[in-house]
Structure formats: C-alpha cells, structure tokens
Amino acid sequence: MGTVKTILCLGDVIGQSGFRAVVTGLAGIRKRHGADAVVLNVENTAEGFGVTEELAGKLLSAGADVLTTGNHIWQKREVRDYLDRQEFILRPANYPGGAPGHGSCVFEHRGLKLAVLNLQGRRRMPHTDCPFKLGRELVRKVRSQTPCIVVDFHAEATDEKEAFAMYLDGEVSAVFGTHTHIQTADERILPKGTAYITDIGASGPIDSVIGFQPQISIQRSLTQLPLRNEVSDNRAAIHGVRIEIDAESGRALSITRLREESLV
Fold it and tell me: CATH says 4-261 is which class?
C-alpha cells in the first residue's frame, strides 16, 4: 500500500446558516480530520438557490479546495462569468456544449494530486447529456494525470446514483451523491474499490425541511400551491464523509460519515 491520503467531501451549503457554519468551522474540521483536500458543494449557498462569486471566494478562503454544484448553479446570472474564470469551482460537466464553466479539475496539495468531477443525474432533473457516458470519458482523460478521482454525482433518484457508482466502480476513488440534502447511512466500499454513499447530506439549518422553512413545506403539502421555499436561519450542522485513499492506486480504503454541529 502506498501513501494514505484523506479527503473530506462536504454537503450542499444552504443559505446564511450553512455558510456561517462552514466559514467558521471548516478550518477546525479540516485539522481534526487531517484532511489533504476538501470538496464542498455550494449550489444552495445564496439564499438557497445558487452561489455568488463573493460567497464562493469566501468558502475557498475558509479552507475548501474545490467547489462543486448542481442544477441550481444557474440561478445567479452574475456567477456565470466566474465559472469560466475560476478553475476550482465546477458545474455539472454533462450540461450541453456552450454552457459556462467546466465540470472537472485537478487539484494538488501536500503530495496529493486529486481529480474532481461534477456530474448531474437525469431522473426528475433538468435535461442534460448522459452522465454515464460522459463520466467514463472524463475519467479516462484524467486518469492520465492521477488515479485519485472523486465524483460529485448531483442526482435525485437513489437507483440512478447506485447504478452510476457501480458503473465506475474500480475506475474512481469515490462517488458521493448530493442534491437531496439528507445524509444516507449506506456508505461502503464497492467490490472493485470505489467508496460510495448515496447522499452526503447538507451543510445547513438543523430545524428545517431540507434546509428550508418547515411551515412553507407543510402548507405546500396541505394546499398543493406552488409556494417558493425560503431558507431557515437557525443553527446549522455540517454533513459529509471522510474518505481515505491509497494515493498510488487511487483505491479507497475507508469511508466514514461526518456530522459537525455549528456553534454559530
């Protein structure tokens, strides 16, 4: 076995509550877990929908190395130019050609060269190109640079997430799901050595419905009216996973769920 490296993959930052928790807590979390890299999903940072250049910059300064996103990345029009300029903020790679930004990057730190891929599912999600076919193409390209590859698969359907991970088992170090905001308890190493979890959860308010005000969700269910979600602003928890990999082979050695309650 070669050098063991530790990667933290942290869930969707939701609103001011989640943003405060990450900005104030990430440095300590990173130190406690001895993380060589931190991948953070930020698609819900700006009032629950999208992210701005200012917020993304502060999250990178707070200790995140690569920012991933999902279908809400397009909500803030002003971020689109930033996606082209900033190497370490990603949008799902399988949006059709012509979309701003990019869906993969390679990050180097403390002897770790890590490729991060961002892809989006198609079940009950906006129309995109096939994440399976494009995902494999991207993996084959980045493997010429490093065997250490993690994939944020931003998707709704559990079976699509599991199928995607099985499809790339042995070709990437980890596939972690985002989008549904609720941490699942199915973390495991797949047969060929890829770490997997269906959803890493969110970094957002605890007393909420997937990060948003409960009363609005309740009223929407009772009335069937298309009420718009509004972010809750109470104390937050940061959710994610800690993954250990063999830096020489890229094979996952362990995956452990993480939950850190914020004091702010």
Answer: alpha beta
Q: How far is CA 146 from CA 8, 64, 85, in A?
A: 18, 20, 23
User: Taking Cα atoms as reference points, which of 193, 213, 197 lies closest to residue 205?
Assistant: 213
Strand duo 4-10 + 195-197: pairing: unpaired
Q: Which residues are known to be catalytic?
A: 72
pLDDT at 58 (0 to 100): 97
Q: Which two tokens mark 88?
A: 């370490």
Q: Tell me the per-residue pLDDT of 87-115, one tens digit each, with 9 for 90 and over.
A: 999 999 999 988 999 999 999 988 899 99
**pTM of the predicted protein model:** 0.94
Find out whether 242 and 255 touch, Cβ atoms under 8 Å. Answer: yes
Confidence of residue 212 (pLDDT cuts 50, 70, 90): confident
How many Å apart are CA 172 and CA 154, to the nearest integer? 16
Alpha carbons 41 and 51: distance in angstroms, whole number: 10
Where are the domains positioned within the chain?
4-261
* pLDDT classification of 166: cutoffs 50, 70, 90: very high
State which H helix or E strand residue 218 sits in. helix 214-223
Buried b or exposed e, range 208-242, using 16+ CB within 10 angstroms: bbbbbbeeeeeeeeeeeeeeebebbeeebbbbbbb
Render pLDDT for 250-259 as a digit per residue (tens, 0 to 9): 999 999 999 9
- Output phi, psi for 74, to 5 deg: -85, 0
- Phi-psi label, residue 202: left if phi above 0, alpha if psi -120 to 50, beta otherwise: beta
